Amino acid sequence: MTSAPEYLAPEYVTYAHMDELHELQRPRSEARGELNFILISHVKELLFRAVIDDLDTARRALERDDVPDTCLALSRSVRTQRVLVACWESMNGMSVDEFVAFRHVLNEASGTQSFAYRALEFLMGNRPEGQVAAALRDGHPMLRAELGKPSLYDTVLQHLARQGFSVPAECLAKPPAEQHESNPLVEDVWLDIYRQPDRYPDSHRLAESLLEVAYQFSHWRATHLLVVERMLGGKSGTAGTDGAPWLRAINEHRFFPELWTFRTRL
Q1: Where do the TM regions start and end (predicted)?
Q2: DSSP symbols for 29-73
Q3: Per-residue confidence at 4, pLDDT binned at 50, 70, 90?
C-alpha cells in the first residue's frame, strides 16, 4: 500500500500560520457550545488587537497634528468595533442550558482577565487607579507599555492646546498613567468648536470621529450586559466577578467624557 503524499501547506496557510491557529481551540468538555465559545473568544481577542493598532495609529498621527490620518485610523477602528459588537450575536445563539453544561470547566477564567481588552481601555483613557496599580505591579508587558504613554484622549487635549484652545494646564501636565478627570473648562473647548464648526472644521471632524469610537465601545458594553443577563440571570460572573451588576455599573462610564457632557449646554 502506498502511503499518502505528504501534505504541503499552501502559502496562505503558512503565511498566516492558519494550521497553528486552528490547533488553539481545545475544549475541556463534550458540551456542544464550548467550541463556539472558545472560537468567538479568540475572535474577540484578535479584534481587540486590531482596534488597539488603529487607535495607536490615530494617536501617533495626532502627535504630529495630522487630523486627516487620525480620523482615517479612527474610522477603521469603528468598523472593527462593529464586528466586535456582532460577535455577541454568535454567542447569543447559545441557550442557557448549553452554556451551563460547560461553564464549570472555565474554573477561574474570566473575560476581565483579558490583557488586550484592558490595554484597549487604558489606551482610550479609562485608567482607574486600582487597575493601573495592579497592571504596573504584575500586569502583562502590553499594559505596562501602554501606561507609559498618554492615552488617546490625553493626546487629543494636547493637540487642541497646540491649536490655541484653552485646555487647562492640569489636564496637560498630569502623568500618563493617571486617569483624566472630567473638567468643565474642557467642556468649554468642545462647546466653542461646536458653536463654530466652520471656523474649526478639523477639530469638529476629530470630535465626531472620537465620539463614534466611544459610542461603539458603549454599544459593545451594553450588548455584553444583555448577553450576560440572558446567560446568567442574577448569578455571579466567572472567577467570582459580580456579573451583570458590574456590567451595569461600567455601562455608565463614557470615554472622552466632556464630548458627551458639553451637549447639554449647546
Answers
A1: none
A2: S--TTHHHHHHHHHHHHHHHHHHHHHHHHHHHHHHTT-HHHHHHH
A3: confident
- SS3 call for 23: coil
What predicted TM-score, i.e. pTM, was given to this entire model?
0.93
Amino acid 237: pLDDT: 61
Torsion sign across C-alpha atoms 260, 261, 262, 266: positive
Collect all residues with Cβ–Cβ distance below 8 Å to 220 and sequence separation of at least 6: 81, 84, 85, 88
- Grid cell 488597539 — which residue? 52
Task: Give the dihedral sign, CA 247/250/256/262.
Answer: positive
Report CA 40 to chain centroid distance, whole Å. 16
